[in-house]
Specification:
Blueprint: H1 13-24, E1 31-35, H2 42-54, H3 68-73, E2 81-84, H4 95-106, E3 115-119, H5 127-138, E4 144-150, H6 158-162, E5 165-168, H7 174-182, H8 191-197, H9 202-210, H10 213-228, H11 234-244, H12 246-266, H13 275-282, H14 288-313, H15 320-336
Helix pairs in contact: 1-2, 4-5, 7-8, 7-9, 8-9, 10-11, 10-13, 11-15, 12-14, 14-15
């Protein structure tokens, strides 16, 4: 069974029930902005929801799977559904793509039902594309629906966010993530280790199991521990970042920043951390006098890491090496100010 056929996943069921119920009783909004962490299946969710909308005889909670429209959806795409993706060689969703989508929505439905447009990673629209989408949101065509998904809703213009019905998809707990991964990974893989490394994001955990992601993450965290202890250089850490991929490494830094902020707020280590993350936290033993200062510094670092991630995804030709040097220099300065055991 494909992943799309499994929609909704267990952790999506509450949101799925809410949206499909709204559609069945005629209260479905013209546009939805679905936000949530990376690796929890937001894009698959929008495809499943589009299939439900197009189904000629949907059940209470799912598409029938056997009508003509459902068969269309399973054979390479329904003629009344369009999905925008980042084109090969591009960093952004471009204005031409959004204009083409708008033209598609204005045309008569092939099947006499609705028309649906899906925009995954909606934060990747450039300024022109976002402005073009705004016109479609302000002047919607009858019986058309827009399904946007993103893990960075704050990167979208406020004008876009205000014209979409905003819903949040929750990340599952560790047990749910482990149970799901156990059904989808080879027997020799460790679902607990994957769940921990993926911060309970099941599809990201699945991706780690299919790549060198788990090894790369542990390797970088080990290097970050060494940098924090003054046992390696910034340039050596930058070189490793280039090997792994700067975008991937910045996501690691964002993730560890969140973990450290939570630790400073609660002074408790989560039992769901993987070894590299636990080792980093074990180096931090803030006293009451410095906790506020550390917290503010880490929150500032998190903001810088998020901005660096946006720059690396942008079409402004950023310099990945300079970005990593800046982030890792600031990390080294930050870690020096924290008392170690």
């Amino acid at each position: 069974m494909s992943l799309l056929q499994q929609i909704p996943f267990l952790w999506q069921k509450e949101l799925w029930d809410k949206l499909t119920s709204e559609f069945r009783v005629g209260k479905f909004a013209h546009a939805y902005l679905i936000s949530g962490a990376q690796g929890i299946g937001k894009e698959l969710f929008t495809y499943g929801l589009a299939k439900f909308i197009m189904c000629s005889a949907p059940g209470k909670l799912s598409a029938c799977g056997s009508c003509t429209n459902c068969k269309y959806s399973g054979e390479g795409g329904h003629p009344d559904t369009i999905a925008l993706t980042i084109e090969e060689g591009s960093r952004d969703i471009k204005i031409e793509q959004v204009r083409s989508m708008s033209g598609f929505l204005e045309k008569t439905s092939h099947t006499g039902r609705a028309k649906v447009a899906i925009i995954a990673n909606a934060h990747r629209m450039n300024t022109g594309a976002a402005n073009a989408l705004l016109k479609t949101l302000e002047e919607p065509t009858e019986n058309t629906y827009l399904l946007l998904s993103t893990h960075l809703p704050g990167s979208l213009p406020a004008t876009i966010r205000s014209r979409c019905h905003k819903v949040s998809m929750q990340t599952p707990d560790q047990k749910t993530a482990i149970d799901w991964l156990s059904l989808h990974i080879p027997d020799q893989e460790d679902p607990l280790a994957l769940a921990r490394s993926a911060q309970n994001r099941p599809l990201y955990g699945l991706e780690l199991s299919h790549t060198d992601g788990l090894e790369n993450q542990q390797q970088f965290l080990n290097k970050l521990v060494q940098l924090s202890a003054g046992k390696t250089s910034i340039q050596a850490t930058v070189a490793l970042s280039k090997k792994i991929g700067e975008q991937v490494v910045v996501r690691y830094l964002i993730q560890i920043s969140i973990i450290l902020v939570k630790y400073l707020l609660t002074n408790q280590q989560s039992s769901e951390l993987e070894p590299g993350q636990q080792e980093l936290l074990s180096m931090f033993q803030p006293g009451k006098a410095v906790s506020i200062s550390l917290l503010l510094s880490l929150m500032g670092y998190y903001d810088q890491a998020q901005e660096s991630h946006r720059q690396l995804l942008s079409n402004t030709n950023p310099n990945p090496q300079l970005i990593m040097e800046s982030l890792l220099w600031r990390w080294s300065q930050l870690s020096r100010s924290i008392p170690t055991r």
